[in-house]
Write a structure and sequence with these properties.
By secondary structure, this protein is α/β, with parallel strands linked by helices. The chain has one domain: Alpha-Beta Barrel (TIM Barrel), CATH 3.20.20. It contains eight helices and 13 strands. The chain has a seven-stranded mixed sheet, with helices on both faces. It starts with a strand and ends with a strand.
Length: 278
């Protein structure tokens, strides 16, 4: 068993919000759920190889996936000691969701996308969810151009330095990916007109996620490369303009220092305005 701090299980492209700059592209009419039975064999195999400290069930909006309880109950069965959280925007709550902690020791993390509605959502979920995490967004990997989409041509080291998903290793389609963008760009390309140049096509095709059948050495190398830049980092932005997801159009966060990583813990919200902790 190899220890890994965090793995996201991405279970749906569907979301009821259209947050500008969504880093998983759910602000477009992205379709498709991940159903547990389709990936149960691979995930069971991963449970014999990965000792995950924190599991996050994420989307899209995971509460819209009709298989959510299957995901919750089975991930708890396979990883009995891990912290498991469902990351929700808090706007679609059903009675069965409120039983998850008692039945499975699986809680909800509440993503606060809009300072104006944050206090009301906190009241609704008080005692039922935690932690409450306030999010800011920036331009995502995909850029909309009139009737098609494209990717960035960034300097990979600079894009990695300011990436807020660099440690979000992701299991999607039963495979382990370095980051959510690499997992979802091929899926996005199946549903939308994503136009890539020849170099980008080669880079996208050259990245191979790990399958549960990978060798021990391949898995150890993957974990060891947690802080490594990959050529595909060029697909993501290198100059971030931060803004609250559903808030004002104007940028309200100073440009991060590109020489160092900016983590969510580095941000604080004061009177509705985002700042970097100093």
């Amino acid at each position: 068993m190899i220890k890994i701090p965090l793995v996201e299980f991405y279970i749906t492209n569907v979301c009821n919000l259209t947050c500008r700059g969504c880093n998983r592209f759910n602000n477009y009419n992205f379709k498709g759920h991940q159903y547990w039975d389709d990936h149960a064999r691979e995930i069971k195999a991963w449970s014999t190889r990965l000792d995950i400290q924190r599991i996050t069930i994420i989307g899209g909006e995971p509460t819209l996936n009709p298989d959510l309880e299957k995901w919750v109950s089975n991930l708890r069965r396979l990883w009995p000691t891990s912290l498991i959280m469902v990351q929700t925007n808090g706007t679609y709550q059903r009675p069965e969701h409120l039983t998850f902690w008692r039945k499975y020791r699986v809680g909800f993390g509440l993503s606060l996308h809009d300072p104006e509605t944050a206090d009301e959502l906190k009241k609704q979920w008080e005692g039922r969810a935690g932690p409450f995490e306030a999010f800011v967004f920036h331009e995502s990997a995909v850029i909309k151009e009139h009737d098609y989409f494209r990717l960035h041509h960034s300097e990979p080291k600079r894009a990695f330095a300011c990436c807020d998903m660099k440690y979000d290793h992701t299991i999607f389609n039963g495979k382990l990916w370095k980051c959510p963008s690499m997992a979802l760009i091929p899926e996005f390309a199946k549903q939308f007109d994503l136009r890539l140049d020849n170099e980008q096509k080669k880079l996208l095709e050259s990245y191979q996620p790990l399958t549960p059948e990978c060798s021990d050495q391949e898995l150890e190398d993957f974990i060891a490369q947690r802080d490594a830049v990959i050529p595909q980092c060029q697909f993501c932005p290198q100059d971030l303009s931060w803004f609250s997801a559903l808030g004002p159009e104007q940028n309200n966060l100073l440009q991060p220092d590109m020489g160092a990583a900016v983590r969510p813990d580095d941000l604080k919200l004061i009177n509705g305005i985002w700042s970097i902790k100093r």
